[in-house]
Amino acid sequence: MATDITVPVFPESVTEGTILTWHKQPGEKVARDELLAEIETDKIVFEVPAPADGVLAEIKAPVGATVKSGEVLGRLDKSASGTMAPPKPATGKPASAPAPPAMPSAKRIMLEQGIDERKISGSGKDGRVLKEDVLKHVDFTEPVPVVSVPEAKPKSKPSAPSPVSAPAMPAGERPEKRVPMTRLRKRIAERLVEAQHTAAILTTFNEVNMQPVMELRARHRERFEKEHGVRLGFMSFFVKATVEALRHFPGINASIDGDEVVYHGFYDLGIAVSSPRGLVVPVLRDADTLNMAEIESRIRDLGERAQNAQLTLEEITGGTFTITNGGVFGSLMSTPILNPPQSAILGMHKIQDRPVAEKGQVVIRQMMYLALSYDHRLVDGREAVQFLVMIKELLEDPARLLLEV
């Protein structure tokens, strides 16, 4: 008795997806709810579980195929549930060498390149193979033969120098490789272009002395971690300061919908996270109701699940304002691009010792450049500058975050 394996029902905002990988091959046994395949969309990766116990009889949508909600991917033979899967072709490797767990993006590249998973060492959590691990393994160049050039014999008499052409060397290979863009990368590109074309983007900069926050963290970090079981980072300070500033400047927490301005009475902050599939922005819901430990805990959880492609669609949609931190990659200054339909985005950068003037003296302080990109159709320059100044002042006097003054 056969049953269809179908694409999960996509939400309205997702129209189609691409088969990222099959975890089973025809002839192999599967158990009910066991992961059969993964489908990459422009937002998240959907998992396809087995509808029943049985044997995978047929795959109708191979890796790379475009599928729609409810479409048949393959067939499962429930009557053959007691049969064993046929042996796989010999690979020259001992059967006792299992392949390490791998991220979906890493699996896709290994399938495209025909790479044996057992040859890759994972650097991720629990030895998981990341996209970066596979890219390091892929060698796109071939060694260029070294040709020795005989030295010229010295002349018996010196002569006037004359231009001599360098001996011809064999040209090295100039390899190129074309790899289709992932759906997420395509969607990121579309949204970035959309933001540039539809919004009047302007960026204002300021700098903040992070020394007070650094000293506060140093004094209370160990006790905070012992009490709450989570590390005290910088992001909780920025989230607190951002929410307070948004209260004073509600237009920066608003968005444009056609000819109307939508003012949000809540604070759902998107926190940009780099993942193996590209940049994703999980949303910290009701950030104004969270204490610093809850903020740190939720951001850590969202970041870990972003790395493992486990975020749900609801967790990456609907933010009212975004914070992005290029400083973790060493960025000193940048102009972040809006995350439509939001009207503004705050960019954090690298903390760096710099000389600054204080009370007529030059001192060294731990400084960070801040950038606020905003939609000038909705946010005036004065409003944007004052918003950024308020964040600066709150961070330079972090006691104000607790006193809410």
How would you describe this protein?
With 405 residues, the protein is of the alpha+beta class. 25% of the residues lie in helices and 25% in strands. It is built from 8 helices and 19 strands. The strands form 5 sheets. Strands 9, 12, 15, 16, 17, 18 and 19 form a 7-stranded mixed β-sheet that branches. Helix 5 (235-248) crosses helix 6. It starts with a strand and ends with a helix. Mean pLDDT is 82; it is low at 82-97 and 139-156.
Topology, element by element:
Elements: E1 2-6, E2 16-22, E3 29-30, E4 35-40, E5 45-49, E6 54-59, E7 66-68, E8 72-77, H1 104-113, H2 131-137, H3 183-198, E9 201-209, H4 211-228, H5 235-248, E10 254-257, E11 260-263, E12 269-271, E13 273-275, E14 278-280, E15 283-284, H6 292-307, E16 321-325, E17 344-348, E18 352-358, E19 361-375, H7 381-396, H8 399-403
Parallel strand pairs: 12-16, 16-17
Antiparallel strand pairs: 1-8, 2-4, 2-7, 3-6, 4-5, 6-8, 9-19, 10-11, 12-15, 13-14, 17-19, 18-19
Which of globular, elongated, flat, extended, rod-shaped describes the shape?
elongated
**SSE order, as H and E?**
EEEEEEEEHHHEHHEEEEEEHEEEEHH
The biggest beta sheet reads: 7 strands, mixed
Oligomer: single chain
Unreliable runs, pLDDT <50, ≥5 residues?
82-97, 139-156
- Number of discrete helical segments: 8
**End-to-end Cα distance:** 69 Å
Overall radius of gyration: 28 Å
Strand content: 15-25%
User: What is the arithmetic mean of pLDDT?
Assistant: 82
